[in-house]
Amino acid sequence: MSEKQVSEITRILQDWNGGNEEAKEELLPFVYEELKRQARYLMSAERKDHTLQPTALVHEAFLRISQQTGIDWQNRSHFYGIASRLMRQILVDHARKHATAKRGSKAIHFSLDDIQIPIEERADSLLVLNDVLDRLEILDEQQAKIVEMRFFGGMNNGEIAENLGISERTVGREWQAARLWLFRELNPG
Amino acid sequence: MHTDQWKQIKDVLAEVLAIEPEGRQRFLDESGLSMDVRSEVDSLLRFEDESADLMQVSAVEFSKDFVADDDGSLSGTEIGPYRLIRELGHGGMGAVFLAERIDGKFQQKVALKLLKREMNTSALRRHFEQEREILASLEHPNIARLLDAGMSDDKLPFIAMEYVDGLPIDEYCETRGLDLNARLELFRTVCSAVDFAHRNLVIHRDLKPSNVLVTNDGVPKLLDFGISKIISKEYADADAATITRMGVMTPSYASPEQLRREGVTTLSDVYSLGVVLFELLSGHRPFEDKENDLREIYGAIIEKEPPSPSSMIATGVPSSVVMSDDEKGPSDTKANIGRRTGAAQISLSSQSVRGDLDNIVLKALRKEPERRYSSAGNLSDDIARHIQGLTVTARPNTFSYRASKFVGRNRISVVAAGIVLLAVLAGIATTLWQARVAAAERDRARQQAQKAERINAYMQNILNFNNPHWLSSNPERNLKATVAEAMDEAIKRIDTDLANEPEVEAEILFTLAFSFNNQGQHAKADELLKKSIAKFDQALGPRNVRSMQASVIVADILSMSGKYQESSAKYETAVDYFRTKVIEDRTQSKWLAIAMNDLGSIYNLQGRYQEAEDITQESVEHVMNITGQDRYAVPIVWANLGTIRGDRGDIDAGIDFFNKALNEMKLTGGDQRLEGAIAKMNLGKVYNFKGDYKASERSFLEGQAILEKIVGMDNVFGMFMMFHLTNSYIGQTRYDDALSQIERIDQLQKELFPGGHIVSAYLDQVRGTIQTRTGAIAKGEITLRAALDGVKKSYKDPSQEIALVKHSLGENLIAQKRFDEARLVLTEAVEGYVKTRGPSHPFTKRCDEMLASIP
């Protein structure tokens, strides 16, 4: 990250802390770039440890940004929320390039077992999930966010609860319902 | 399914999932659910087991294979009817791709700008939309055209623009080896495109070489209105967003106001054009060496004066030290083909750029938008004038510009410099006590310290920037000359420099006037003061405090030039004004006191002793209202009262006032300042009246020592000091000493007052007296008659001066034994003395005795 960007991020964060919500939007490209960079590094072949958690990614991105800007940023949970959304976009972008345009031919659980299926199928699945999540967002915005944070942001129920300002129990309940709905939508027929 | 229905469903799901499976059916049956809800719940519950491991793995883990081997390129992707070929560049909001049409309608390559997915928010879409509208409105041969716009399948907005296959303008100039005129003409074409955009109410806001591509045919095309702005209220909201997006601007080409996040206008584009021209001419950017540090480059653009392009040709760092692509960051968009790769081979000579072109570039680069060219068209026109060999409108940077920059950069040191400057001016020219009152007044009354700084900085500039030699190891004598030259220079320029700041100009003129006044250049001072008054009137309205204060100084000059009538009239006006003014503003007491005191002195000189004494006495009352550091004025007024008493023949009271004044002055150091010297002089005069010439000589010499220390003797004060000392010598019959003094004075008065001064009549009077007493009697008569003519020109009877000359003439006539004539002249002299100095004045008495001695 160039010094220009660092200082720009500092300013945006300050703006945001100062209550300017628009600043959040300005932050997106920087966080996006950082996450992408982190993702590439963490997923690179040189890295032996392949047990990846998006939270690690996000944490590291956050740490880098906050260390470089020397800012004590209060809106951590905001950041993770944004980061989850951005991770989704990053991964979907990547998936798009590997997709086959034959979507939804196989049931997808997004479980550890699924990691063995071919890249193209996984890419297709991710795009399907993306569409399904878009629909869930229309139906129930909060639920869609919970799913996004959980799956793309790797956040646990406690972190999600903090971010959304709801109880952990509610997060659990919402996830249960969303899980059923998502599964059905992902596996039509 | 509706949102509210879903809410009901998920509530039911939450309850039912909490129940053991065997009890669920019954629970649902008893819940009284609608058919829709019930069937939906049943449908979802079927997946309970299957969905248990849904999303057990994270998305990152799930996607890692296809992320890791990915270069992030969207090449090959289809967007609307286009297929992306390769990325041309990307900015904060979007990326630009070379793309081709795939619907077979026509073969065309386009530059396709795509909003980044993560940027696909409503605000940024609006922004993107705005760019499309802007482009649609700009049909110009030198602006890349809008071809198409739309939305990709996954709802990413895109804009298809004319693809310009060309080089950034700087690279083009280098690779084609364009000569100076070709570069200028090319740049003028760019100006015309920018001007066209401006006239269509569009500001580009990100002009830089990579946004100006030149085709193989040599046609420049303006690209990327990505952060441009439409000058219209309609877009105010969208604009607020774009302004906060300033971060995407490339700082090297951004104007100071853009970096300060202030209002961006068409003049910001003029600035950026200036940077581009700078680069085309010199191969460097003005603050290239600062570009590695964001803070430095910001600071430099906002505050630092750019070097001239020609100086960079000679001294600039090699342009191969341009930033790497990485450092350019995400803001640097679309160098269309081959990026800037290596050192620019500058073929232009520094000489061909020096002068006009330097001035033109620097005018475009002014920090203050209003000081730049008022349009891209005007910039272009000035270049055209240069090409045609005509006089350009751009001038080298002015004082005020540099001064304000200087202030901005060195706030503290300017204050220090200001103090030094004042000290220098004091050393050269001293300060009249009025001057110091004025300075103190100015500092206080001027609420904006900024204005003070501006004035100081301007003064600093006059001395520093313009005269590099004056601080050299030069002998002191040159110092004065150089400073005087600097001030002359300042006066020549001030109207231009400060055209928009009449008040600041007035203040500076005022200050300069003091300085000239104190150097004895009264005519110059007078001229400046009158100009200053006009400017004050212009800025503050007629009869304002400052112009009245200035008019007090004008009156002072008039009195020093011996124009007592005009002077007293001016003082009277000022006294009237300040008498009223002090009621509302007690701080004006000092000006009332000054005016009254000075008026008293004039009345005294005019022989209007009673009025003189009255008004001086009143001045004492007002001077007592002066508080703080201006209290130094109090003993000055006492000393003046001493003068008046002495002139009236009340010698002892006069001497008492002087002693009181001088003691008081010691408390504030005033005894070593000008007022101390003047008090010593006037005290000496009283001793002369008394006939105590030893005491008077001592007093004059003490006064002279002070003057020599603070201002030297080559001024009006030194002149009078020497004149009165001459009388001491005459009183002591030291005629040789007296004559050499007279020679000095005569020479000085011719220097100081080429138009003549009353002192020449006084000199005739003392010269004639010496002639009388040294045996050159006939010569003496001629000299004294000349003196009489001289004083009669300036004074009307009754007058102490006329009386004095008649007194001397009477002495001469007695020496010639022309007693009748002597009696007549001396009788008139006594009459004059009685009317002016009063019957008990020593002069009256001595004259009367002389008259009585005639056989």
Structure overview:
By secondary structure, chain A is an all-alpha fold. In chain A, 71% of the residues lie in helices and 0% in strands. Chain A contains eight helices and no strands. In chain A, helix 4 (76-98) crosses helix 6 (141-152), helix 6 (141-152) crosses helix 8 and helix 7 crosses helix 8 (168-186). The longest helix of chain A is centred in the middle third of the chain and has 23 residues, at 76-98. By secondary structure, chain B is of the alpha+beta class. Helix content of chain B is 62%, strand content 6%. Chain B has 38 helices and eleven strands. The model of chain B is unreliable at 230-249, 316-346, 398-449 and 463-482 (pLDDT under 50). At the A-B interface, helix 1, helix 2, helix 4, helix 5 and helix 6 of A face helix 1, helix 3 and helix 4 of B.
Show the helix and strand layout.
The complex is a heterodimer of chains A (189) and B (855).
Chain A: H1 3-17, H2 22-42, H3 54-69, H4 76-98, H5 119-139, H6 141-152, H7 157-164, H8 168-186
Helix pairs in contact in A: 1-2, 1-3, 2-3, 2-4, 3-4, 4-5, 4-6, 4-7, 5-6, 5-8, 6-8, 7-8
Chain B: H1 3-18, H2 21-30, H3 35-45, H4 59-68, E1 78-79, E2 82-90, E3 94-101, E4 109-115, H5 122-137, E5 146-151, E6 157-162, E7 166-168, H6 169-175, H7 180-199, E8 202-203, E9 212-215, E10 220-222, E11 229-230, H8 236-244, H9 256-259, H10 266-282, H11 294-303, H12 309-315, H13 325-328, H14 350-353, H15 356-364, H16 376-387, H17 399-409, H18 411-429, H19 433-445, H20 449-464, H21 476-497, H22 502-518, H23 522-540, H24 545-560, H25 564-584, H26 589-605, H27 609-623, H28 633-647, H29 651-668, H30 674-690, H31 693-710, H32 716-731, H33 735-752, H34 759-773, H35 777-794, H36 800-815, H37 819-836, H38 842-853
Antiparallel strand pairs in B: 1-2, 2-3, 3-4, 4-6, 5-6, 7-9, 8-11, 9-10
